[in-house]
Amino acid sequence: MKIACLAVISIITIYPRFSGAHGPEHTIEATMCYPHEEIYFSCPVGNEIVSVCASGNISPKNGYVQYRFGHPGKPELEFPADPYPPMNKFSISDFHGGNISSIHLKFKVEKYTYVVYQSSTSGVYVIRNGRTVRNLLCDAGHYRQISPRAKRGIETVAPDENDD
After folding, report:
1. Containing H/E element for 6?
2. Residue 163 domain flag
């Protein structure tokens, strides 16, 4: 019985997701999201994966949104730990400066602010005490956009000091 359960878990967490308007023959997406979840953002960064996953998230008070980072089946960080509605946990900002347009999906874990971003590049950067302490770019060829559907389920806020 334990072997069968492990096999099912492995399939769910490692199996790549297919995306694209034309079906599975066009793109394969590495993700930490489960099959029943919507992918708001996902990309490989080296040997790890950054994902923002959602389910039933039709407004900031409904469903849930979770950030996951790490290896499939072994997340190093999952925020929030339990799936709760994103109100007061996540926010999203549109940032425009000159010819640059960015979308930032933000959340805080203790003293750290995490910013998942889409601009001319995409990835996640981490801020502590006003300084960027880590910036993980999506691997070459894996530019990702934040799903437009994230704006319906995550509170939109004005850009702040963490948007650069």
Report:
1. helix 2-14
2. no
